[in-house]
């Protein structure tokens, strides 16, 4: 390839340009090379020395050969010397450059045979188009058929930032090529060193029209060791999916031992696919796992996943799980969704923790919901229906209360704006509550409930304050299959509530370490009056005590759901102050306090025993972003009767930059639990630049989360591991330890090797890391500053 020298400026006046208006609409066209390989991922590349672009003003036209104009525009040929014969042969020598659209071809020598439209380039051949680059010793291109050959090429694909070498590449047309004795890698090799990973092939065939890639005699080498070989390997030639074998996954856990899965992917149609394959385990025999995904339209999609083990050698019976879900928003305000989860036995969640990823692995949802919304002139109305079932996985040593199922649920919700700024709301609903998995000794009643909750409110707001008076009515009618506590099977009640929510706003300018801030002071008063109604004999189908926090302390009712309405004659007093950065608008700090005061005894309580306390626990809370790197969040529930904390949450996070985060949380609930949580993602070693070959040039990260029970003095759950980013490959080794009982734990090892620009081998731990580590960032997340290095052309 030609180099730029300081003396070249003295030679530029002798350069000449030949503008060839060629009839070829093929390889010299703007989209001629769009079919060349587009791989799946990006990373560091094998460098291809760039060719400096010539100065268009350095030479003047020498001559023109005209043929039928191409829609892609004329081709421009620049060289030191051009010899041409009309309708015959044109010869260009010395720093030859041919340009057309997005294509650039340079060489020491170029011959163009116009009758056959064949261009023959020799000596330091360089070809660039659409971000892809090829260098070689020689090339031949048929401009009419787009067929051609590049000899001894080094190639680079811009979309994947990866490339390789071959003894020869043949182009049948822009959509089909063949490479011989080829190698492919996204690693940037050091001088005289082998890339960290490289895929070697006797022959590589790519057909982009059919989206087919075929490698013969393929061997994958990693750190000089062959780790995977196949006489024939097929894969998609573009970013679109294609049927074929996927890389095997390996899993190691304390219950199932060592297992390996070999999935096969079927691209059944553009809108649905199937992944299916066996799982061979050293302890449990062979299982089958699959997932079917489908897309029926925009915002209308779903999936069905299943795991089936015909015979588990550890317990002598079959095991299975099913997980299906669907969501649709099909227009005109119509939405529906359903989900179904099931497992063969109560111990499934312990033995196969990776099969049913859920925040509640012992409570499997089986539900269907549909809603239709209509927009009104001054509001909206929504009609909804659904069923909610549960599959409860019980544990003899640690049983859980089975929740009620709704079979069915029918309701209407209305929001309406009335004259004079009034807001009217109505929710009416009918439910049937049953206990499908009733445990022994569970004497809760099943039955039906119809309820209606109406409210009328008016908000008055100005720049300095606001207040909202509100009147509401909670009515419910019950019909139970078994007698209630009072011996009856039918009951009804209606409970009115009057409330007034109000607040003031004050603001002043302050300075904090030289930075201008706006400080607000926002006192708030919330008054509620609800008469007492005896509800002790009524069932509690969907009711529980509200969490005590900075939001719920201002609610009219201290219970969630419908079945209980707390009697109130109380006022809640609180205040919040905020510090807001004048420049960025970021809320730097927030402090708040709130407390309820009762004017009479409260008779509807969680325990059923009347409360004579006149003052609730004092709630103190604070949050803020002290610096761009430091943030914190705290809550303290203080019991003045015992002069002690009922509940405390202290949380802080340090995040100075990409892939650097440490968070710690202390949680205390008096008489219940006390634990500390630590999560982190942090670089442990930086070898001086990712993307290089060699084991000492990447970045090593530590990742993990630990939950430690101070009450039990033990680690309850943990995730710990490392990520090593070498630029062109990432190694992840993660261990997840999960408590499954009073003295039981399950450990699972996840090991993944990600070869940038090719594929991944092993078990993917990324979902586990994202779910467990606050602020975790993917090492290949470009929006947060990916560590991958891209070559500058």
From TrEMBL:
One of its GO terms (biological process) is lipopolysaccharide transport. It holds the Pfam family LptD. InterPro entries: LipoPS_assembly_LptD, LptD, LptD_C. The keyword Signal applies. The keyword Coiled coil does not apply. It is found in: Cell outer membrane. It comes from the Bacteria. Keywords: Cell outer membrane, Membrane, Signal. GO terms for cellular component: cell outer membrane; transporter complex. Residues 317-684 form the LptD C-terminal domain. Residues 47-74 are annotated as: Disordered. Its main location: membrane. Belongs to the LptD family. Component of the lipopolysaccharide transport and assembly complex. Interacts with LptE and LptA. Together with LptE, is involved in the assembly of lipopolysaccharide (LPS) at the surface of the outer membrane. This is LPS-assembly protein LptD. It comes from Ideonella dechloratans.
């Amino acid at each position: 390839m030609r180099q730029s020298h300081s003396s070249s400026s003295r030679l530029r006046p002798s350069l000449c340009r030949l503008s060839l208006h060629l009839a070829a609409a093929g390889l010299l066209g703007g989209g001629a090379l769009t079919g060349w390989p587009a791989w799946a991922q990006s990373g560091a590349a094998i460098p291809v020395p760039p060719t400096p672009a010539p100065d268009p003003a350095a030479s003047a036209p020498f001559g023109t050969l005209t043929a039928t104009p191409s829609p892609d525009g004329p081709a421009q040929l620049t060289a030191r010397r051009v010899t041409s014969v009309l309708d015959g042969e044109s010869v260009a020598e010395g720093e030859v450059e041919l340009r057309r659209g997005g294509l650039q071809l340079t060489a020491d020598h170029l011959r163009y045979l116009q009758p056959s439209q064949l261009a023959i380039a020799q000596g330091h051949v360089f070809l660039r188009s659409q971000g892809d680059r090829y260098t070689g010793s020689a090339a031949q291109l048929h401009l009419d058929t787009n067929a051609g050959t590049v000899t001894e090429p080094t190639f680079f694909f811009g979309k994947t930032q990866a490339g390789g070498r071959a003894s020869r590449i043949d182009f049948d047309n822009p959509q089909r090529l063949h490479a011989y004795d080829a190698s492919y890698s996204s690693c940037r090799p050091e001088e005289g060193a082998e890339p960290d990973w490289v895929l070697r092939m006797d022959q590589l065939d790519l057909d982009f029209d059919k989206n087919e890639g075929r490698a013969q005699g393929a061997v994958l080498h990693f750190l000089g060791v062959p780790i995977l070989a196949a006489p024939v390997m097929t894969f998609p030639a573009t970013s679109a999916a294609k049927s074929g074998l996927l890389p095997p996954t390996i899993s190691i856990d304390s219950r199932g031992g060592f297992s390996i899965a070999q999935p096969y992917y079927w691209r059944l149609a553009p809108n649905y696919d199937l992944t299916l394959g066996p799982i061979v385990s050293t302890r449990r025999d062979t299982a089958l796992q699959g997932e079917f995904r489908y897309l029926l339209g925009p915002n209308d999609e779903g999936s069905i996943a299943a795991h089936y083990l015909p015979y588990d050698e550890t317990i002598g019976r079959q095991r299975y799980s099913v997980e299906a879900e669907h969501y649709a928003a099909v227009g005109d305000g119509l939405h529906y969704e359903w989900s179904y989860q099931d497992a063969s036995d109560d111990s499934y969640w312990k033995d196969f923790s990776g099969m049913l990823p859920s925040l509640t692995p012992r409570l499997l949802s089986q539900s269907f919901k549909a809603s239709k919304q209509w927009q009104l002139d001054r509001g909206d109305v929504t009609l909804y229906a659904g069923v909610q079932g549960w599959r409860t996985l019980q544990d003899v040593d640690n049983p859980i209360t089975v929740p009620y199922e709704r079979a069915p649920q029918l309701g209407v919700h209305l929001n309406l704006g009335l004259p004079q700024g009034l807001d009217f709301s109505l929710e009416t609903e009918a439910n049937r509550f049953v206990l499908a998995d009733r445990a022994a000794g569970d004497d809760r009643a099943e039955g039906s409930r119809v309820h209606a909750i109406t409210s009328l409110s008016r908000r008055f707001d100005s720049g300095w304050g606001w207040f909202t008076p509100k009147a509401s009515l909670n009515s419910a009618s019950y019909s139970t299959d078994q007698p209630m506590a009072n011996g009856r099977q039918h009951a009804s009640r209606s409970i009115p509530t009057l409330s007034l929510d109000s607040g003031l706003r004050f603001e002043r300018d302050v300075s904090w370490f030289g930075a201008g801030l706006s400080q607000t002071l926002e006192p708030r008063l919330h008054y509620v009056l609800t008469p007492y109604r005896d509800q002790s004999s009524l069932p509690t189908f969907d009711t529980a005590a509200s969490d005590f926090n900075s939001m719920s302390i201002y609610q009219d009712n201290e219970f969630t759901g419908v079945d209980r309405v707390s009697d109130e004659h109380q006022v809640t007093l609180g205040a919040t102050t905020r510090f807001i950065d004048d420049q960025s608008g970021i809320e730097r700090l927030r402090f708040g306090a709130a407390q309820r005061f009762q004017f009479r005894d409260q008779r509807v309580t969680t325990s059923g025993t009347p409360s004579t306390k006149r003052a609730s626990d004092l709630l103190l809370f604070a949050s803020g972003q002290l610096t761009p790197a430091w943030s914190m969040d705290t809550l303290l529930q203080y019991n003045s009767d015992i002069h002690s904390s009922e509940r405390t949450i202290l949380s802080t996070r340090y995040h100075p930059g990409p892939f650097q985060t440490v968070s710690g949380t202390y949680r205390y609930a008096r008489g219940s639990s006390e634990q500390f949580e630590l999560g982190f993602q942090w670089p442990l070693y930086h070898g001086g630049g990712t993307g290089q070959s060699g084991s000492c040039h990447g970045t090593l990260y530590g990742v993990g989360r630990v939950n430690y029970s101070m009450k039990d003095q033990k680690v309850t759950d943990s995730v710990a591991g490392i990520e090593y980013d070498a630029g062109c490959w990432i190694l992840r080794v993660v261990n997840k330890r999960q408590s499954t009982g009073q003295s039981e734990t399950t450990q699972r090892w996840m090991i993944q090797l990600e070869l940038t620009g090719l594929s991944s081998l092993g078990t993917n731990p990324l979902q586990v890391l994202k779910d467990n580590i606050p602020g975790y960032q993917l090492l290949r997340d470009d929006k947060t500053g990916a560590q991958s290095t891209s070559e500058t052309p």
